[in-house]
Design brief:
- The complex is a heterodimer of chains A (about 375) and B (about 250).
- With about 375 residues, chain A is α+β, with helices and mostly antiparallel strands.
- Chain A has 2 domains: about 55 residues, no CATH class; about 250 residues, Orthogonal Bundle (Cytochrome-c3 Hydrogenase, chain B), CATH 1.10.645.10.
- Chain A is built from 15 helices and 8 strands.
- Chain A has a 3-stranded antiparallel sheet with strand order 1-2-3. Chain A has a 3-stranded antiparallel sheet with strand order 6-7-8.
- The relative contact order of chain A is 0.19.
- Chain B is about 15% helix and about 20% strand.
- The relative contact order of chain B is 0.11.
- Chain B has a 6-stranded mixed sheet. Chain B has a two-stranded parallel sheet with strand order 7-8.
- The N and C termini of chain B lie far apart (about 50 Å).
- Chain B is built from 4 helices and 8 strands.
- The radius of gyration of chain B is 21 Å and the shape is elongated.
- Chain B has about 250 residues and is of the alpha/beta class.
- The chains are: A alpha+beta (about 375), B alpha/beta (about 250).
- At the A-B interface, helix 1, helix 3, helix 8, strand 6 and strand 7 of A face helix 2, strand 4 and helix 3 of B.
Chain lengths: ~375, ~250
């Protein structure tokens, strides 16, 4: 039935490498309470001296049963819950959920709402990458980038706060469009932010891109090939840094991304350094998208005609978006009632984390920290 | 972008719909006469329909992919979409080799096939090796307590070469197992473990079939419909505090 030759035998996760020193294998725990695991991730490392022979992730510490909760809430009530999964990219989570339910209801958000959605989602991508960059650099030992990125991220959070009153778990979108019209001066503030932020990206790069320590700590660390990424289902910047030019915003455009002009940055080596470059380049592309979206922001309604009591026709829909961390998918089954029969979230962090073992084999313990950082996982999303 | 397959009820508002699941480069993949159904053949939204029932392939007279923009977007009730047959060269090839074991359908512009359990994993293997579905997006399940075959197990697959996403769905009884697809897609490992954790469906041949999100000693599988949402809480309070839960 299954042809063993066709399975990806180079990814045989069961056979550890032969130890290069004839010493006893050492098994140690990293986490769950470890500052560099970005939440509560427990990693069981098998070591030969400093070298990692293999590892196992133990997850679930933040499991809240989001999917079960979804079955007991109406479509509208469940909307804020999705923000609590990837809480540093709450807007993206909301976009994915709203679009999936809209697909079930067969409605579409009006153009103005779509534009505002793109602006806020791309701002969120920048914020998510900023938080990643600051903490990732901090893990490796560079403290300054954290202050720089958090200083600039604040400006984005201020825009969110003015728009919807929340900074982190924004609940910015509604099924069918937006609840709030943009505040007066929104466009101007977004434009000001872009002018302010563009030179800041150069600043980050000045600190790190040619920094000798940064380069030594990240080049050729945690290499993963594009083929392995695909086999493991890894998506997002990790996949692109391995040379696969694939972005859902281009491949299967959602919202109104097809109206905007932007590039997909890719890397070549699939190492930690390339993933850093890809994410920094993505911030620049996001700036480009926001610029076009603000420039062309149409007038008009912000809410489609959706029923107050939502009862989508029985059926099932899978819809996914390019979240800052990769493909974020929702699979929703409706039975025609006001509550979803089943909500399945396909979180990018959960699937990407699976690659940690492959990426860490043969590396040093200190590199495990760098690799966890470069995967850009959020444990709230891994565990849901 | 080719629009061969449209949501059968593509209301005017649906026309510029984000085509996230619409293959962008699949021009050759699907025949043009795929099941577009004229919107008059659908049921009004009011009769909360048992739309899961498989609608027979409507030989939809070549209703153009985009129905005329007749009704305004604000039409009170959009017609209810129902699954229609999904035709494409790939499906034709698969049905010719597997016959009635495969039922290819389209719903809301998304293609999926309901397949017989006995075809798993052979069909998945064929889809990956011969049809290029090299990326296993997701594996999940749905529990239907009243049905004889209680579980739907769903594979969401994507092909980079064709830029196409499909779903494969099979039905199994409670206690029945499925063959693992880890040899086909390495990434199926954790996804199958989560299905086991949440539904108690075991995958034969999986390298490490154990719980993933919940602790090892957990009782029951929470996403089953007969697992009460307060059950765990009440039990914990009862055992550890010796009182009735206030929830």
């Amino acid at each position: 039935m299954i042809d063993p030759n066709s399975s990806l035998s180079h990814l045989d996760l069961e056979t550890p490498e032969k130890p290069f020193l004839d010493a006893n294998e050492l098994v140690i725990n990293m986490g769950p309470q470890h500052p560099a695991t970005h939440g509560v991730l427990r990693v069981i490392l098998r070591l030969d001296g400093e070298k990692v022979l293999g590892l196992e992730c133990v997850i679930g510490y933040l499991h809240r049963g989001v999917e079960k909760i979804g079955e007991h809430r109406t479509y509208t009530m469940f909307n804020p819950y999705v923000d609590r999964m990837d809480y540093v990219a709450a807007v993206s989570n909301g976009l994915g959920y709203c679009e999936t339910v809209e697909k079930l209801l067969n409605v579409e958000a009006p153009p103005r709402a779509q534009h505002v959605r793109v602006i806020l989602t791309e701002l969120n991508r920048i914020a998510s990458h900023q938080l990643w960059l600051g903490t990732h650099a901090l893990d490796i030992g560079a403290i300054t980038p954290l202050f720089y990125t958090f200083r600039d991220r604040e400006e984005i959070l201020k825009i969110y706060e003015k728009y919807c009153g929340a900074r982190l778990t924004t609940h910015a979108f509604r099924i069918g469009g937006l609840q709030y019209e943009t505040y007066s001066g929104f466009e101007k503030e977004v434009k000001n932010f872009l002018t302010f932020f563009r030179p800041k990206i150069d600043e980050y790069e000045e600190l790190l891109t040619t920094n000798r320590i940064w380069v030594e700590r990240t080049k050729n660390v945690g290499i993963i090939s594009g083929k392995d990424c695909i086999a493991l289902g890894v998506t997002g910047p990790v996949l692109r840094a391995s040379g696969v030019k694939w972005d859902l915003r281009k491949a299967q455009p959602y919202a109104n991304y097809k109206n905007f002009d932007f590039d997909i940055p890719i890397g070549q080596n699939g190492d930690t350094y390339d993933r850093y470059l890809v994410r920094v380049a993505e911030m620049r592309q996001s700036v480009r998208i926001i610029e076009q979206a603000v420039e062309a922001l149409p007038e008009g309604p912000i809410m489609a005609k959706v029923p107050k009591v939502m009862k989508p026709a029985a059926g099932e829909v899978y819809h996914s978006i390019e979240a800052p961390k990769g493909e974020l998918g929702y699979f929703i089954v409706s039975d025609g009632s006001t509550q979803p029969y089943r909500v399945r979230v396909r979180p990018p962090s959960f699937v990407n984390l699976q690659a940690l073992d492959v990426m860490c084999r043969g590396q040093l313990v200190a590199d495990v920290i760098a690799v966890i950082g470069t995967l850009d996982i959020v444990l709230g999303e891994v565990d849901r | 972008m080719p629009d061969e397959i449209k949501s059968p009820s593509a209301s005017p508002a649906g026309e510029p719909k984000p085509t996230a699941d619409q293959p962008a480069v699949s021009g050759g993949v699907k025949a043009a006469d795929s099941g577009s159904v004229p919107s008059d053949s659908t049921v009004p939204a009011a009769n909360a329909p048992s739309a899961k029932s498989e609608v027979p392939a409507k030989a939809a007279s070549a209703a153009p992919a985009t129905p005329p923009a007749a009704k305004p977007a604000a039409a009170a009730k959009a017609p209810v979409p129902t699954p229609v047959a999904w035709n494409s060269p790939m499906v034709a090839k698969l049905t010719s080799s597997y016959g009635s074991g495969i039922e290819p359908l389209t719903y809301a512009g998304q293609n999926y096939m309901v397949v017989d359990r006995s075809l798993i994993p052979e069909l998945l293997q064929v889809l990956r090796n011969e049809e290029g579905f090299d990326y296993c997006v997701d594996i999940t399940a749905v529990h239907y307590l009243q049905r004889e075959k209680q579980f739907d197990v769903i594979w969401v697959l994507y092909s980079f070469a064709r830029n196409e996403r499909i779903r494969v769905k099979t039905q199994i009884r409670d206690g029945e197992t499925l063959p693992t697809s880890v040899p086909i897609w390495t990434g199926a490992n954790w996804l199958e473990r989560e299905v086991y954790d949440m539904f108690g469906i075991k995958f034969d041949g999986h390298p490490d079939m154990k719980r993933i999100l919940l602790p090892d000693g957990w009782k029951g599988h929470p996403l089953r419909k007969d697992y009460g949402i307060l059950q765990q809480d009440n039990e914990w309070v009862q055992i550890n505090l010796g009182i009735e839960s206030g929830q």
